[in-house]
Amino acid sequence: MNESREPLVHMFETHGGRYLYDVNRNSVIEISEETSNALKNKEMENKGVKMLAENGFLSGKRVTTIVHPENEAVESYMNNKINMIIIQVTQACNLRCRYCPYSGQYDNRSHTNKRMSLEMAKRGIDFLWEHSKDCEEVNLGFYGGEPTLEFNLIKTCMEYAKIKFEGKNVKFSITTNGTALTNEMIEYFYDNNVILMISLDGPKEIHDKNRVFADNSGSFEAVMANVRKIKSSYPDFFHKILFNVVADPENDYSCTSNFLSGNEVIKDSVINSSEVNMFYRKEDIEISEDFCIKKGYELFKLFLSKLGRFDQKKVSPLVSVNYSFLEKMYNEQLRTVEALPDRYHHGGPCIPGAQRLFMSVDGTFYPCERVSEESEAVKIGHIDTGIDIEKVKILLNIGKLTENACKNCWAIRYCSLCLVSCDNLKELSAAQKSKYCKNVKADVGNRLKDICVLKDIGINFHNY
Amino acid sequence: MERVGLVYPYNRKFTPFLRYGSLRKDFRELRLAAPSGWGMAGKDASRADDGYYIGLSVASDFQSELKGCDTVIFCDYSLPLDFEKHIYTKIEQSMHEKKNIICMLKLEKETERKIRTICAYEGIEFICYGDEPDTNYLEEYKPEADLKIKTINTPVIFVLGVGESTNKFDLQLALRDYYLESGYRVSQVGTRKYCEYAGFHSFPGFMLDNSISEADKVFCFNNFIKRIEESENPDIFIIGVPGGIIPINDILFQDFGMLAYQVSCAVRPDVCILSLYYNQYDHNLFRDVNNSVKHKFGYEIDCFNISNIKLDMAYSIQKRKMSFLNVDYRCCDEAANTINLPDRPVFNISNGHDAEKISEFTQGLLEKYAEIALVNEA
């Protein structure tokens, strides 16, 4: 530990004040203009600066060893606490969405007609059974391609899992484009409390821009017809459906927002919003100024609603998650501590395979469904050989790739980079990972600013 | 002994009874069954706690295991389980087949009455350890006059944990076995509600009764221990304290260690064992924890145990509830071996060897203290 090094802090300003985020203490402090200037000029004898130092702030301590705190327990998690397996029942899909990871625009596999055999699917479920002894409940997910094209296989798997896990709660989930849902499927999913995640990007003109059938026709009407059917026949099931909305930067943000909060069928449903996946993408996406302005305006309305000065119902569901992030950061993460530990790892990686173990049609294991199936770097095993513990440890400890940068990074506690940021399909790349550092720091910095501004104008984060 | 017993739903809460105590000697044959979804069917019983090999296999078909056994032990369990579907129906099956029933579960009064009535009618034995008799503890244990903490003259060993599920029950049973086999008279109060099954006292329910003041609980507990001392006249007293001694964080606060504090106010230990969750600790942690205990409770920790249970912090915070996973016992050996504290040894009760070592260590300390004969407070 070298206490004589520069304080590990991040200084920032808002319209109303100046602040210092002290990484060691994990605290944000409002400081005067004079103290702020003195810190910038490294005037350590300044009264305000000395006062901070005397009270345990401004430490120059850095993490000495980058290692994930769960590193030594990886094998135990893999043996006893795999919470979920996601089974890729098919690689076939009836849509050809333009930003789909399998569309050719990403470094990933292309659409194929490969399907999983029942025997392989059962082995996947058996694997979960073998490795989830300490889980209070387990989750079985079905993924594609378009998984509902293999409804009979899904049904057989679910019946098998219910028997296999007798005495333990099994939750089922399916990620679907929603176009191929039949009455039989809906009834079965309803009876078995299946969590459906349906992809829907917005109104017809936006949804159909990207989500198209093989003949290039839009899929909006097919999805909405099924959604209406569920809502009218199984209203309580409808409220459990998650709508996954991909906010394409090339689309009109306000238009999507208005649709989600105003459409008679969709409004009041649970929306899971995400932006187009930047990882593994062959070409970068330009985010237009218009998109940023409109998103910013929706955030503004969200914050106003929290002050009681705007109707909450008119706030875009696309941005409501942003406030949840702030609440979580304020209430769970920004807790004052003594100092950074000697052994630490930046935030971001979950234990690969423990949360959402993904098994492809041929039985290959991946940390989750979001990684590229073309990548050798992220394969963590196979149903025939089990999970490669050493590989999991490498993927868990991606901070080692950028060890020096991480040790000196003020955002080390709030970093969100996981293995996909480093994956160049052949290996984990420090250079590739470093490209995302700027964005992470901007995001963390903005969240800190948002918290300070919102608290300053009277928002109470304690109602969490 | 010709009895054949079946334990259901077998899980890690019952494993200490297989490793220590006389249960295995009480039955000619012991069978274990667990719901098939718990992932243990066909495995050795040690799969439940990932400790050393036991040599009993776990079955999942309760009905077929029931045949040929004469007693069914319904044990406590840590995983969620539908009582009506998975326990009560099995109790009914057992009664139907005229099997004796030992129940370690807390039953609803009406359910217990119903089972007791049927068992009496069928002429089968029903013993339920999960419930305490209705006693007015305040009346029974709190003296009306002369309010003072009475000194316990017997050497006392405390078994504490930083949290729940830290192998405390293994430690308590291991110590009991050792001292009984060494010829000592042992009095003991344990961390669970069914310790009577192992031959000692359960932790008294009044300590968790919200209608009794904290100070009254201290006096009651002191008297409770004193009464046992007076009636059993032991050579040694082992007290297991349920729960944890400290809040883990702002979310996982586990009663802020109130119970441990109250017990510590009521009784002063001569030897204290603290059990920790599995983790990679540095030396400072042991120093800091010892200081915390010293200043909060007024005594020092004599030795540590690293349990083979890990707190799943991320999941626990997400669910607002403590969640754990087992770690292979050999990992705890590695973790314990990296710690080299000059005056406070670190043990691993789950490895099969340290049960004796930790007991010998406590005995050594007590023998050393015995050389100093205190006249005051005696």
Which structural category do the helix and sheet elements of chain A fall into?
Answer: alpha/beta
Overall pLDDT level of chain A: 92
CATH level 4 superfamily of chain A: Aldolase class I
Number of domains of chain A: 1
Structural class of chain B: alpha/beta
The total of helices of chain B stands at 13
Helicity of chain B, as a percent range: 25-40%
Oligomer: heterodimer
Q: Taking Cα atoms only, what radius of gyration of chain A do you get, to the nearest Å?
A: 24 Å
Q: In whole angstroms, how far apart are the ends of chain B?
A: 44 Å
Tell me the fraction of residues in β-strands of chain A, as a range. Answer: 5-15%
Number of strands of chain A: 15
Largest interface (CB within 8 Å) is between: A-B, 30 and 36 residues
Q: Please state the second-level CATH architecture of chain A.
A: Alpha-Beta Barrel
pLDDT < 50 runs, ≥5 residues of chain B: none
**Percent in helix of chain A:** 25-40%
What's the CATH architecture name of the largest domain in chain B?
3-Layer(aba) Sandwich
Distance between the termini of chain A: 37 Å
The share of residues in extended strands of chain B comes to: 15-25%
CATH class of the largest domain in chain B: Alpha Beta
CATH class of chain A equals Alpha Beta
Protein name (chain B): Peptide maturation system protein (TIGR04066 family)
InterPro entries (chain B): CHP04066_peptide_maturation, P-loop_NTPase
Protein name (chain A): Radical SAM core domain-containing protein
Cofactor (chain A): [4Fe-4S] cluster
